[in-house]
Specification:
This is L-glutamate-binding protein. It comes from Corynebacterium timonense. By secondary structure, the chain is of the alpha/beta class. About 40% of the residues lie in helices and about 25% in strands. It has a five-stranded mixed beta sheet with strand order 10-9-11-8-12, with helices on both faces. It is globular. The structure holds glutamic acid.
Length: about 290
């Protein structure tokens, strides 16, 4: 490639970057505005799961329930209260595991709270408020399953998880003897488990607790440990547009409020039977990355 060709191409690339940056500048949002701009406008689009009872569930009457729904609602209302704005109207969008970063990057949602573990590769694509909850990867098995009680029993077994999730990645990296089947949603894994098409479902204990509570007597949760430690740490964050630091700070302040006024415990008691798999976390502390 000669210099006369490269120079204009470089200039064009620089111009494109400048345009993109200015469109995303200030609140860090796209055309629709970042999280804070949307809250101030009175209309905010938020992403969560639609098929995870206790965490993010769209009910048959189209209302939304679950801990993530309550946390996100609290956060946007608390941000509004701190600034003297009205509570915004929330539009919910379904955000399956594999699509979360893209939906944030495209500006299709202003923020996502969807059992969304903060990890290094995701933190390159989006920014995170939180963490607001710590849980661990576990297994769901049929209640009549007697042969699976820990990691050592998984060799040669068929495990279901979801594309783009941290538990699926962990199985691929750490358990090469396992046959992993990846579905788009955990609810389809639950049906495969019920029908005997897979031997176990692996994801966060919080999510598995929701499915177990939905079908009493059908399933059991198996905790996973390695060298006496939890197999993984899943720190749930609220994803926003990359480098929207104003939104991250505002979310973390709201999460502090949520802990200190007792709302988090209230949301856990309301949504998570027996508080299965839930520990409090430390908003703003990303030292685990
Ligand atoms: N927390 C894990 C993750 O973010 C599993 C749950 C999920 O897929 O939403 O990948």
């Amino acid at each position: 490639m000669n210099r006369t060709f490269r120079a204009p191409a470089a200039a064009a690339a620089a111009a494109l970057t400048a345009t993109t940056l200015s469109a995303c500048g200030g609140d860090g949002g796209g055309e629709s505005g970042g999280l804070l701009a949307q809250i101030e406008s009175g209309q905010v689009t938020l992403g969560t799961k639609y098929d995870q009872p206790g965490l993010g569930l769209r009910e048959s009457d189209d209302s939304m329930t679950g801990l993530d729904v309550d946390v996100l609602t609290y956060v946007v209302n608390s941000i509004a209260d701190d600034r003297g704005w009205e509570h915004p109207e929330i539009t919910w969008r379904e955000t399956p595991s594999a699509q979360r970063e893209t939906l944030i990057q495209n500006g299709e949602v202003a923020a996502i709270g969807a059992t969304y573990s903060i990890n290094a590769s995701r933190a390159e694509a989006v920014s995170f408020g939180g963490p607001y909850l710590l849980t661990h990867q576990a297994l769901l098995v049929r209640a009549d399953e007697t042969d699976i009680s820990g990691l050592d029993d998984l060799d040669g077994r068929i495990l279901c998880s979801v594309t783009g999730s941290t538990p699926a990645q962990k199985v691929k990296d750490a358990l090469p003897g396992v046959q992993l089947q990846e579905y788009d949603t955990y609810s389809s894994c639950v049906e495969a488990l019920r029908n005997g098409n897979v031997d176990a479902l692996t994801t966060d204990a919080t999510i598995l607790g929701g499915y177990a509570a939905q079908s009493p007597g059908d399933f059991e949760i198996v905790e996973l440990e390695q060298d006496g430690q939890p197999f993984t740490n899943e720190h749930y964050g609220i994803g926003v547009m990359k480098d929207d630091n104003e939104a991250v700070d505002a979310i973390n302040q709201a999460l502090q409020n949520m802990y200190s006024d007792g709302s988090f415990q209230e949301f856990v008691d309301k949504n998570i039977e027996g508080g299965v798999g839930v520990s409090e976390d430390t908003p703003g502390d990303l030292s685990f990355l």
